[in-house]
Write a structure and sequence with these properties.
With about 170 residues, the protein is an alpha/beta fold. Helices cover about 40% and strands about 10% of the residues. It has one domain. A five-stranded parallel beta sheet has the order 3-2-4-1-5, sandwiched between helices. Helix 4 (about 80-90) links the parallel strand 2 and strand 3 (about 95-100). Helix 1 (about 5-30) crosses helix 4 (about 80-90).
């Protein structure tokens, strides 16, 4: 990725602010896990897993995954777009790696790298099967192809948040 004049400052500051925000978000959430026993069984039975998260639902993955990982590593498929660079830098702070590519740029190279990771390591993969261009909540064939080529199971992962007022003390 070619860095333009002054973009280096944004590329330096934005991920650090994103990390602080995600850590605060994780600290402020009261979590209730549903289906964790099945997930832990799947993780125990499989060397690697493909986690499918709808686009727009992957925000808390850096907060949630460390509580579930059982000593495993996670690599996330992230676009080669400039926005993807911010996400890639943020997840590094949480001990996660990225594989860069998408349907429109770097797809074959990314697919090969993901298959290799799934077959030869104990690295789980995080993918948004509907991607940023959609259609929303409709999985594309890439995740199916990845599962077929690697033999790794696909596990859907999501979260739900209820609306709450924060810091209610002293507010009227």
């Amino acid at each position: 990725m070619k860095i333009k004049h002054m973009d280096w400052l944004i590329l330096y500051l934005a991920p650090r602010l994103g990390v602080l925000w995600l850590r605060f978000l994780g600290w402020s959430m009261r979590l209730e896990y549903v289906g964790v026993d099945g997930l832990k069984k799947t993780m125990a039975e499989n060397k690697s897993i493909i986690f499918a998260l709808w686009h727009g639902r992957q925000l808390t993955l850096p907060v949630l995954y460390p509580k579930l990982h059982q000593g495993r590593k996670l690599s996330i498929l992230i676009s080669q777009h400039k926005d993807g660079e911010y996400i890639s830098r943020i997840i590094k702070y949480f001990g996660m790696d990225s594989v860069r590519g998408s349907t429109y740029r770097g797809a074959i190279k990314a697919l090969k790298q993901l298959v290799r990771l799934l077959k030869t390591t104990t690295t789980d993969i995080g993918i948004t099967p509907d991607g940023p261009r959609g259609p929303k909540y409709q999985a594309q064939l890439g995740i199916i192809l990845l599962a077929k080529l690697s033999g790794a199971p696909i596990v859907p992962l999501t979260y739900n948040a209820s609306k709450k007022k924060l810091f209610q003390a002293g507010m009227r």
